[in-house]
Design a protein that fits this description.
heterodimer, A: alpha/beta, Rossmann fold, 8 helices, 28% strand, globular, B: alpha/beta, 11-stranded mixed sheet, 10-stranded mixed sheet
Amino acid sequence: MADRLLEVRDLHVAVAENEILKGVDLAVSKGEVHAIMGPNGSGKSTLANVVAGKPGYTVTAGDVLYEGESILAKLPDERARAGIFLALQYPVELPGIRNREFLRTALDALRESHGEDRVGVRDFNKLLEAKAEELGLEPDMTKRNVNEGFSGGEKKRNEILQLLVLDSTLALLDETDSGLDIDALRVVADGVNRFRGPEKAIVLVTHYQRILDYITPDFVHVLIDGRIVRSGGRELALELEERGYDWLREEAQTGAAPAA
Amino acid sequence: MVAEKEPRVISRTSEVESEYKWGFVTDIEMDMAPKGLDESIVRLISHKKNEPEWMTELRLKAFRYWMTLEYKEPRWAKVSFPPIDYQDAYYYAAPKPKEDAPESLDDIDPELIEAFNKLGIPLEEQKKLTGVAVDAIFDSVSIATTFQKQLEDAGVIFCPISEAIEKHPELVRKYMGSVVPYTDNFFATLNAAVFSDGTFCYVPPGVRCPMELMTYFRINAEGTGQFERTLIIADKGAYVSYLEGCTAPMRKTNQLHAAVVELIAEEGAEIKYSTLQNWYPGDKDGKGGVYNFVTKRGKCAGRDSKISWTQVETGSAITWKYPSVILQGDNSVGEFYSVALVNNYQQADTGTKMIHLGKNTKSTIIAKGISAGKAQGTYRGLVRIMPGAEHARNFTRCDSLLIGGECGAHTVPYIEVRNPTAHMEHEATTSRVSEEQLFYLMQRGINEEDAQYMIINGFCKAVFKELPFEFAMEASQLLKVSLEGAVG
């Protein structure tokens, strides 16, 4: 398919000796929002991290294709410049590096790889402050060190700020909703919806369906014990909300075929 | 005519890729004393500089004392080096002037001017660095000082110390040796006997020095020891910001550099002293490089005075230096901000001493050590609160960053408190560039090498922000060059 952006094929991933993903298939096209749901420890974050190229994981079988090409041999920064963005579950603090320098360096790296000029410092700072305000962040936070002394909510909003500024193509959001109160959740969801578009795709990893009230997914996948056991539409998330994950786990164990 | 704005100091390093780019040798005729050291050499040095009798006597006194030390250097620091043959070195080397004494730049060998041009320190009138007065020192001899006129108008004396001995003997006699006496330590004693030149600066009462002052030290001749003497005095209510930069050619043999720097801040005065030390560090196998054994000390003599040391030490095979402050005046402030980077086989044992004598005296120490390759870095610091220092305060923070698995970082803080009202804080950390941080930066599209430098720069930020802007830019470039091959 021409607009196929991400394709995960029979992906097996181990950490040390433990197999975390046991054959995951996933196809994401431009314009789509996919939610990956599942209980703790099912491998949701692993999937997002492996697509982004985080070290520490061993792919034992399968492949990950982005825009039709395998990316498993690519470094994280190459994947990022190709358009993959991972909003971290636990954003890292970077002492002595100011938010604005960090983001400007990242944006310049991106632009240079596309043969574009570097961004002007003043223009960039203006743009950044405007975007920060949209996300309910103090304009002042752009001058603070990255995530240093940020509250949990500020850190998550800062991730979305980065997504909007870098304007990536594929957003992997790893539990961006966790730890947010309802107001912050709404702001973050607004940001994600602003990013959403026919040229973009979103893979939203979440434990709860709460965020899906604000970001309506096109597809919902349930990941249990390293396998996608069921895929469906928006209504699947609601069913999960009602019934929990156990019935699906039992089904998976008894070998019932997952719905297409 | 409007002078074109010159590229600032930073141009010196901006094009650097790898290796030590300051390693060139200038071919120039030298006037050298015979090898070795005895009273006749000391007299010869003094004679070459047309010094008055009192100065010759001071040198001889130091030399005789030095002989009683029986060539035994202090060996307590965590650095190791083979015995130094002090008789197998030259103690005086000066570029031969075209005429007798250079009256203007026209009398200076063009090779010399070219050497400084290569270092990014133009001395010609039309090219001078804007806003920075430079004293250029080549193999222990001051060859030119820029912006003399403007400084004179402000009443600031900024000249080679040899000139100060001749023209301002009352100031030199009053202050030289008042902070670092000739008996202070082996290298300071040696320096007192054989120092060849250096910088003198005096800022009169109430004057704010109108520009940054800079000395650029260059070792060129092989097998010569370099012994500068720097003396800076800020009289009552005066302010001065002083910078020094240093480079040397790549030589297979080790070169000895034993300087002494004394600062005196009178009542209400402030001295800001910044160093970018980039002497030749030796090659990747640890061959060659400068032995940098330096004594730097400041005295906050008057009330409400302040002395601030900022250093970025990336060069030298061995660095042994502890820029210190004696806080004598009540309410005086001492600061020490340091980044010390060692790579390959470099060794650095550096830190500070804050000696609190006056009431309400305050000191701050921020030391950042970076070790890479097979190098060893040590922070060694002393904070001493004397009985009369009521309500003294100190804050110390030492952070070490390790790159790779074969280097070492050591922290040796000494704290002596003899007054119960003292308030002391000490923090220390040792860390590595974390995988998590690296991934985070790379995930945003920044390549691994740049990501590493961003993290290392961030680590040094608290020190770099104390440097004048151009120096801060250069310092961060210098880190990059010095870590070539260790990261990425």
